[in-house]
Amino acid sequence: MTGPTITGFLLGSLSWGALPFVRAWREPNISEIIGAGAGSIVVIGAVVTIALITWLQAWEYLWTQWFTSLDHKKIGIMYIVIALVMLSRALIEAVLIRSQQAAAINGPGFVEPGHFAQLFSTHGSIMIFFMAMPFLTGMVNYVVPLQIGARDMAFPYLNSVGLWLTAGGSGLMMASLVVGEFSTGGWSGYPPYTELNFSGGPGPDYWIWAITLASIGSTTAGINIACTIYKFRAPGMTFLRMPLFCWTAVCTAILMIFAMPPLTVATALLAADRYLGTHFFTDDLGGNMMNYVNLFWLFGHPEVYIVVLPSFGVYSEVVSAFSSKELYGYKSLVIATMAIGVLSFTVWLHHFFTMGQSADINAVFGIATMAIAIPTGVKIYDWIFTMFRGEVRFTPPMVLSLAFMVTFVLGGFTGVILATPPLNYMVHNTLFVVAHFHNMLIPGTLYGLLAGYMYWFPKAFGFRLNERLGWISAGCWITGFYLAFFPLYVLGASGMARRTHEVFDPAFRPWLYVALFGAFVLFTALVTLFVQLFVSIRDRHANMVAVGDPWDARGLEWSVAAPPPEWNFAVIPQVESRDAFYWRKRNREAYKPVDHYQDIELPKPSACGVIVGLSAAACGFGLVWRIWWLVALFGAVVVATVIIRSFLRDVTRTIPAAEVEAFDRRWLAQAHYAKPVSRQREMSRRNEGLAEWTA
Amino acid sequence: MDSVGPQLRHAGLNLEDDPRESRHQVESDVFGFWIFLMSDAVIFALLFALYGTMLGARAGGPGPADEFKIGSAFVETLILLTSSFTFGMTSLCLKRDHKPQRLTLWLALTLLLGLAFLGMEIHDFVTMVSHGATASRSAFLSGFFVLVGVHGLHVTFGSLWILVMVAQVATLGRDAKVKINLIRLSLFWHFLDVIWVAIFSVVYLQGLIVPGGGS
Ligand code: HEM
Ligand SMILES: [Cu+2]
């Protein structure tokens, strides 16, 4: 593609036309202007952020305290920051998709077909790989070590590498707005459409490399989480004493370990086809795109459980805490979780019932799919029975949990419809499918992650989030979902195809308008979420819960200060039962000084993770534009960094016992002077983070 | 933590002087690597499966009987198996605490064998390519080159790793981390051996069984 010129060497296939601004200048129509606008938002956003950080002189602070930190808590928070940024972008794109379809009834609408295809491709890819995955990885990262009584993850440095690979992948997604264009092949990137002869531009390459970075990052995260839970539980924290969130985390980790490789193979082989001229999935010389489809869904189906299980964990914690009851049917929840994990590998074919297998094979996979409804149903009943006769408080996380239970069951019903091959033939590739998977993913993943965010926020930052805005946001997420997606069931059943750029049936108009309105309500929900954050930070002094247990909750994570010290626990706790902290409070053993404080060894901050992740992204950028020197240079930087790091020995630092003791005693004094707050008043300013536990 | 007894579970580790804390860390470091290998094994399993589905997809191009040379594949097998033996000797040196030179010697020998393997493999590949049997000729050849090539990349990476470990033994001596890395490296190296045995059976031996036959 490149000539032998010097610019060809330096810039690969990059040219002026890659910039949306230039394209909009040459061809000023609304579609290009939206593209240029999006590009400008990225550029301006980056410039403003950099300027702001410089103006606040915060670079050093950010670099030493955050970017290079190997503390699992900070890494967790950074993951979630990425997720929230990417959620905003993908949600705006969703609003654009809905607007286009509502505007394009018997007309072209305002977004060009290619641009429209990029919108749903980026929306889907981002929501899965750069919203749901970082969000849940971040949450697991933050919460699990605290819940099992560990000081950090098993591999803090690998943890940082995973974070920065995800950040690098997100960077590539953002770069595709400014330089060139994204794939038009959907989030699943099916070949042969995404092969060179149909999609010659940089689009699929952006998709391939962004996804590859994310999936490698997730594999490392999975290894890390599994190893942490297997090897770093506190003494006495047997498997069946772990909080349920840990169980879902370990199950998700196992799924990541086994399900990310198929994705890596799929994207790598697609890349081989595009870069090396192999014929894995091409439509000539023996290539077979069904191999891709199988690989992709071998990952894709477990993936939906990867993103859904941690939220199930959150619901288990939230429902139990805000009902003040032990989790009902703990063991059945554990078994159900693991059963779902195993079954999730046996159903991938239901994503392509229509692609040529025999009816018998379809029947087997259809039945296997329906079987998953059983363990899921068990869970729903367990949560309901947990609430039964409990002292239920309708905090925002609890409201989201309740909305989840109702909505998810409805989505499950449509899932059973889709799992029936003859019915699937009728509605496959229509908006019915889109309605179904959003009906699972929004309550099943997003609500849970948001509930977890609101539930653990006071733990992480030491003050509560504003509940009123939390309710408004939750209310908008709930009504917005119903308005935006239930019409799609109707549209899909009436035959409207998904990924449609123009609509030719005027009868669809009212439904499309309702769905558009719903998308706006969802957007309001997102805005409210940020307003809530802003208002809560502004009013933080009135809502401090420094003692650390604002909800009279149960797990070990609530037994330390809020925010917890870097070392989490002054001494590694000894666990006697499930809900360890709850019983410690009841037995009047909580908030006791330690007999003997000891030095604590923690990992030192390291720049290696940042360098590896961002260099890998630069390498990916070079691959997209075929700038080979960039690929070689940053590839070498990655390898060199890993090697150099392996020679370093001075990688830990010791917190002296005196410092640990001073912190602990200060916190104990705070706990001593705080006024316990009753459950009825936990959403008031009287909540200092010390729960009244006589009741 | 109580689940981990004080005994040493990994051959070649003698960290008696180290506190319990770091021994616990060792457990988890090696265990984590096992998990990684499982994940890597999935990648190979999928590549094998793909190769299987593409056996017949020759598109009129050359097939196994035309291109595979069982002789050189057999020699490669012997070389790689021997390198596993020499790595075994490295592990014994690590455990029995012989002189560092001896450990380095066995490591270097392993490296040489690894490089010899790679040299032969590259030679085979180049010969194939010179016949026009390239990865872009047919799906079958794509599957072949990628399956065998990914194994070769792993061996390349393993060789680089050996080099790094030789340097570490020389500069850092045998501290706990060097030992852990040697143990991980040995797992990696033996793993590659196992994969190669599968490649030898599935790719090369099977290529003999179906002389020029269709799918
Ligand atoms: C929060 C509000 C959301 C809205 C308004 C929304 C809206 C949409 C729309 C309009 C489409 C395109 C439908 C079509 O093909 O015609 C779509 C596709 C998709 N969405 Fe969402 N979505 C939302 C959240 C999510 C979430 C949370 C996830 C995943 C965690 C997600 C994952 C996807 C995926 C995977 C696709 C398919 C993309 C493709 O066709 O390749 N969405 N969404
Ligand atoms: Cu599925």
Automatic annotation (TrEMBL), chain A:
Protein name (database record): Cytochrome ubiquinol oxidase subunit I
Source organism of this protein record: Lichenicoccus roseus
Similarity comment: family membership: Belongs to the heme-copper respiratory oxidase family.
Any one GO cellular component localisation term in the record: plasma membrane
Stored Gene3D superfamilies: Cytochrome c oxidase-like, subunit I domain
Boundaries of every Cytochrome oxidase subunit I profile domain copy: 57-576
Protein keywords: Cell membrane, Copper, Electron transport, Heme, Iron, Membrane, Metal-binding, Respiratory chain, Transmembrane, Transmembrane helix, Transport
Superkingdom of this protein's organism: Bacteria
Compartments reported by the entry: Cell membrane
Principal subcellular localisation of the protein: membrane
GO molecular function, a single term: metal ion binding
Sequence intervals crossing the membrane: 34-56, 77-97, 117-144, 156-179, 206-232, 244-272, 292-315, 327-349, 361-378, 399-420, 440-457, 469-491, 511-535, 606-623, 629-648
UniProt membrane topology term: Multi-pass membrane protein
GO terms under biological process: aerobic respiration; electron transport coupled proton transport; respiratory electron transport chain
UniProtKB/TrEMBL annotation, chain B:
Highest taxon above the source species: Bacteria
InterPro entries: Cyt_c/ubiquinol_Oxase_su3, Cyt_c_oxidase-like_su3, Cyt_c_oxidase_su3-like_sf, Cyt_c_oxidase_su3_a-hlx
GO function terms (MF aspect): cytochrome-c oxidase activity
Gene3D superfamilies: Cytochrome c oxidase, subunit III, four-helix bundle
GO biological process annotation, one example: aerobic electron transport chain
Alphabetical list of Pfam families matching this protein: COX3
Parts of the chain that traverse the membrane: 30-51, 71-94, 103-120, 140-166, 187-209
Subcellular location(s) per record: Cell membrane
UniProt keyword annotations, A-Z: Cell membrane, Membrane, Transmembrane, Transmembrane helix
Domain Heme-copper oxidase subunit III family profile: 31-208
GO cellular component, one term: plasma membrane
Major localisation: membrane
SUBUNIT field: Heterooctamer of two A chains, two B chains, two C chains and two D chains.
Similarity field: Belongs to the cytochrome c oxidase subunit 3 family.
Role noted for this protein: Cytochrome bo(3) ubiquinol terminal oxidase is the component of the aerobic respiratory chain of E.coli that predominates when cells are grown at high aeration. Has proton pump activity across the membrane in addition to electron transfer, pumping 2 protons/electron.
Protein name, as recorded: Cytochrome bo(3) ubiquinol oxidase subunit 3
Species for this entry: Lichenicoccus roseus
